[in-house]
Each structure stands twice: as structure tokens, then as C-alpha cells.
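pls design
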């Protein structure tokens, strides 16, 4: 029974911390303190106090050991922010996804070329989609790589 209460408290604390993930330690403390002043529900106050304790502990640790941490989500060795979605994901990030569904082929560039706005240098070995590989080979700019 006690473990259920603790885990529920941690869940509520983590929800509060995630809400202030991009805040500095001082800003997060100010926000938590203002919520504490306004809160009447005792279980929510307990979660806010737990969040405040977490912020204070990590602020002290960061000031002593890692002064380059500025926001809550930069704190290492914590699983509080693992469930946060990456809202800052850009088109460049999707280039490096390993879950690429399209089949890839390895080609060797025979000439300098440009593909989808990217400059490709002669003698470079790279993986491209099958459609791009066919296009490069048809244009005489690449050949299939013999290394496997």
C-alpha cells in the first residue's frame, strides 16, 4: 500500500517537473512556490513540495558539479523527462532515423553531383533509396557499391 502511494506521488511530481522542463531552476522554483501558495488540495501540495525538493536538490548538485546545466530537462541520470515528446524535431532529425522504411542501396559516386539539394563528392560511398540510386546510375553519376 505504501509503495502505491509513493509511486503515485512520484507520478504527480514528475508531471509538475515536466511542465517546467524548459525553465531554469530559479524560474521553476518561483512557479512551484506560486502554485503552492494557491493550492488547497493536500495531495497536490505534497506533489508540489516533492517537485520543489527535487528542483532544490538538483540545483545544488548542478551548481557544485555541473555549472553548465541551465534548465531542468538538462539534468542527467534522471528518468523524469523520458516521456517528453521531442517537440523540437526538425526535418534534419528525420534524416538520421534508423526506422527508415524505404530499402536502401549503397552506391559509389563516379562524378560530383547534387541530389535533393545535397552535394555529393566523387568517390564517396553512400546509402541512398533505391529510386535515387537508379536515378544516379541512369545519369552515369554513380555505380552500385561492390562492398557488402
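designed seq:
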Amino acid at each position: 500500500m505504501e509503495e502505491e502511494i509513493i509511486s503515485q506521488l512520484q507520478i504527480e511530481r514528475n508531471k509538475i517537473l515536466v511542465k517546467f522542463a524548459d525553465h531554469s531552476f530559479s524560474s521553476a522554483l518561483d512557479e512551484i512556490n506560486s502554485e503552492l501558495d494557491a493550492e488547497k488540495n493536500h495531495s497536490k501540495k505534497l506533489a508540489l513540495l516533492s517537485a520543489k525538493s527535487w528542483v532544490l536538490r538538483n540545483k545544488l548538485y548542478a551548481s557544485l558539479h555541473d555549472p553548465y546545466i541551465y534548465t531542468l530537462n538538462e539534468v542527467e541520470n534522471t528518468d523524469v523527462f523520458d516521456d517528453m515528446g521531442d517537440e523540437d524535431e526538425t526535418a534534419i532529425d528525420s534524416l538520421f532515423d534508423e526506422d527508415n522504411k524505404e530499402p536502401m542501396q549503397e552506391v559509389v559516386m563516379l562524378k560530383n553531383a547534387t541530389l535533393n539539394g545535397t552535394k555529393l563528392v566523387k568517390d564517396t560511398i553512400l546509402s541512398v533509396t533505391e529510386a535515387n540510386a537508379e536515378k544516379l546510375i541512369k545519369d552515369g553519376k554513380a555505380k552500385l557499391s561492390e562492398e557488402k
